[in-house]
Amino acid sequence: MANGKCAVIGDRDSILLFKAVGIEVYPVTDGEQANKILHRLARTGYAVVYVTEAMYPACGETIREFQGEAYPAIIPIPDASGTQGIGMNAIRENVEKAVGLDILSNS
Amino acid sequence: MALQYKPTRMELSNLKKRRTVAIRGHKMMKDKRDELVRRFIILARKNKSLRVEMEKKLGEAMQNFVLARAMMSGNEVEEALLYPARAIGIEMGKQNILSIPVPKLSLETQDGFVYPYGFATTGADLDGAVQALAEILPLMLELAEVEKATSRLADEIEKTRRRVNALEYVMIPQFDEAIHDIQMKLEENERGNTSRLMKTKEMLAKEA
Asked: What interface predicted TM-score (ipTM) does this complex get?
């Protein structure tokens, strides 16, 4: 068991709160910046990186790159303006990919 | 594309061996796929409920935080939150699901929660938001673990299914076809040989 680190990437207003509980925060203003930071974090042995939903779509490149590895887990979280359903969509896509159809939507 | 082969007995026995291996592999792949799907569905259900819970709770915490920001000046909020209480520690492990490595995370136990700021300039909303966030941290970690596992499994299922299909619809039919062709050719040669012998025997009988 190694010690892992944990970080949050997103717009300043949404993620400042995470600082209070001891998670590293990386405020960014646009997706490109988020992608760059995410890539750097992923390579330097972070265990979990939470990305706000607003920035999540722009990070697709890095997310795909590290999908085949156990670490880091890159997880979308809702930001201050609430959820846009991106995280849920990701789950549904996974289910469709694995099973062939969405079997969770109405259960 | 059909297989390239020479119509010989050697080739025939090789092909038969490869076909047996392919069939055995196909059966194992199929079993693997079924088991992966079974586990995947359990994980995906858990993933969904965890995410719903996390999004709800985190949304509430965020809303509290927005209220807190409204009550206090921006500088005060920054000041209160700039210095972290302590860096949280995460235990990083690995577990295997059918030899697919997936992360195993756990929060290092924190003894008692302290606010990383003084109470003079901060409002109660901020306390509430920070407290709520601290409480959902374990939930967020569990979500991270499950969500990563789910996506790894989904990838693996896709790969396995492709292999199953390749074996079932391409490799095995190709072997069957090749084996059949070789058998036909060998039989044809055999017949050709027999008729040649008969012909020769006839000619010899006529000479004598």
From this structure: 0.84
* Sign of the torsion formed by the C-alpha atoms of A14, A19, A21 and A24: positive
CB B116 within 8 A of CB A49: no
Query: Is the CB of B62 less than 8 angstroms away from the CB of A16?
Result: no
- For the CA atoms of B165, B171, B176, B178, what is the dihedral angle to 10 degrees? 150
**The model's pTM:** 0.80
| A5-80 topology per CATH | Rossmann fold (3.40.50)
Could you tell me the residue ranges of all domains in chain A? 5-80
| A9 SS3 class | strand
| Residues 15-44 of chain B whose Cβ lies under 8 A from any Cβ of chain A | 36-37, 40-41, 44
- Residues B54/B106, Cβ–Cβ less than 8 Å: no
Residues A99, B34 contacting (CB under 8 angstroms) = no
Give B50-79 pLDDT, tens digit per residue: 988 888 888 888 888 888 777 777 777 777
Residue of chain A whose alpha carbon sits nearest to that of B34 = A99
| Residue A2 in contact with partner chain B when CB distance is under 8 A | yes
| Phi and psi, residue B86, nearest 5° | -165, 150
- Domain B9-202, CATH: 1.10.287.3240
